[in-house]
Write a structure and sequence with these properties.
With about 400 residues, this protein is an alpha/beta fold. Helix 8 links the parallel strand 7 and strand 8. The structure holds pyridoxal-5'-phosphate. The site of pyridoxal-5'-phosphate has 13 residues, from helix 5. GO terms for molecular function: L-aspartate:2-oxoglutarate aminotransferase activity; pyridoxal phosphate binding.
């Protein structure tokens, strides 16, 4: 994508499938911030896409027990029967959706689920509709698989949500998938049943279009928001929908690398073909840990939600107190996606004009030593994303620095 740095190295010619794709802007900013920190600068990084909680103790214990009983070999290709059963029960219990074991797949993170799904279904030139702002990996994975991301801007005024008219207009004979993510990374916006309904009606009228939903942040929602997954609202779409989820965010298990999905048997089988030649199976120990995560006590999720909500409120109100910034209150996830149109056209104390959101975030990093990610990395400008999955003390300090830095612009 054009918001990323191309891989350029003298004498090295990458394959054409990745020639136009670079290292993610988020990783670049993270690396730069980490280098500054190493040089002794007091950098605060608000870029992390992972909870600052630890994996629950019962989950760790299950992993240790798995090692001790010798669960250290290759497992079934796309998930152990025990984990598929736990996932099937989770879908029934929490989402009111029935997926049989052969309609479930497990992979090395939800990222690999997305990769397997697109590799297994997208032919060169096939279109994938992605509302923006979007999680950066979506469009890059589609492109690697030879598809064409069709990006549809969904501004703050529209709640960062796709509208039925936009979807209807974007569908062509080449549309293979529409990909929806609720609650969203980066906007935190979520679709209620009423928000989803008109979109699902559009899809019912276009039987060649499949629906991929990423429910990764399902358990991180606020203010009584009722999470619902599309297949539960419209079972007629189940035969052409892939419902993606994982343990990374809800159970603070990003490093364990387990994601999963429910979908029609034929699609699940096709995805297994890709996985069989990519990784053979997900980690045996991580699968055992995930069984415990899904079957074990869930009450701690409420406490974690309350902690995230407290931090969300702190960040949103601090951002909205800064003239020139405008932050919508997100329904879920642990990100804010704040507009920064009021900063465009201003000049930094060093005389640099802020032309784009990436200039603003560069300024925040250089002058305030706060690392945040520009909206351009997520396909929508001028905005910037803050991840508030960090301590309240760090957030308070970072927001004070951002306010001071904004006040120094002229
Ligand atoms: C919206 C969304 N989906 C999927 C993922 C990937 O999760 P996993 O760790 O399971 O690969 C992320 C991670 O940041 C995400 O933000």
């Amino acid at each position: 994508m054009n918001n990323q740095t191309k891989i350029e190295e003298a004498g090295f010619q990458p394959a054409s499938r990745i020639a136009a794709i670079g290292v993610s802007k988020i990783l670049q900013i993270g690396a730069r911030a980490a280098a500054m920190k190493k040089d002794g600068l007091p950098v605060i990084i608000l870029g992390a896409g992972e909870p600052d909680f630890d994996t629950p103790d019962n989950v760790k214990a299950a992993a240790k027990a798995a090692i001790d009983r010798g669960d250290t070999k290759y497992t079934a290709l796309d998930g152990t029967p025990a984990l598929k059963k736990a996932i099937s029960e989770k879908f029934r219990r929490e989402n009111n959706v029935d997926y049989a074991l052969e309609e479930i797949t497990v992979a090395t993170g939800a990222k690999q689920i997305l990769f397997n799904a697109f590799m297994a279904t997208v032919n060169p030139g096939d279109e994938v509709i992605i509302p923006t702002p979007y999680w950066t990996s979506y469009s890059d994975i589609v492109e690697i698989c030879g598809g064409v991301p069709v990006l549809i801007p969904c501004e703050a005024e529209a709640g960062f949500r796709l509208k039925a008219e936009q979807l209807e207009k974007a569908i062509t004979p080449k549309t293979r998938w529409v990909l929806l993510n609720s609650p969203s990374n980066p906007s935190g916006a979520a679709y209620s049943e009423a928000d989803y309904r008109p979109l699902l009606d559009v899809l019912l009228r276009h039987p060649h279009v499949w629906l991929m939903v990423d429910d990764m942040y399902e358990h991180i929602v606020y203010d009584g928001f009722r999470f619902v997954t599309p297949v539960a609202i419209e079972p007629r779409l189940k035969s052409r929908a892939l419902t993606i989820n994982g343990v990374s965010k809800a159970y603070a298990m990003t490093g364990w690398r387990i994601g999963y999905a429910g979908g029609p048997k034929a699609l699940i089988k096709a995805m297994a073909v890709i996985q069989s030649q990519a990784t053979s199976c997900p980690s045996s120990v991580s699968q055992a840990a995930s069984v415990e995560a899904l079957n074990g006590p869930q009450d701690f999720l409420k406490d974690r939600q309350a902690s995230f909500k407290h931090r969300r409120d702190l960040v949103v109100s601090a951002l909205n107190a800064i003239p020139g910034l405008a932050c919508r209150t997100p329904e879920g996830a642990f990100y804010t996606f704040s507009g920064c149109a009021g900063m465009i056209g201003k000049t930094t104390p060093r005389g640099k004009r802020i032309e784009a959101d990436s200039d603003f975030t560069d300024y925040l990093l250089e002058d305030a030593n706060v690392a945040v990610v520009p909206g351009s990395a997520f396909g929508l400008s001028p905005y910037f994303r803050i991840s508030y999955a960090t301590s309240e003390a760090e957030l308070t300090e970072a927001l004070k620095r951002i306010a001071d830095a904004c006040a120094r612009l002229s």
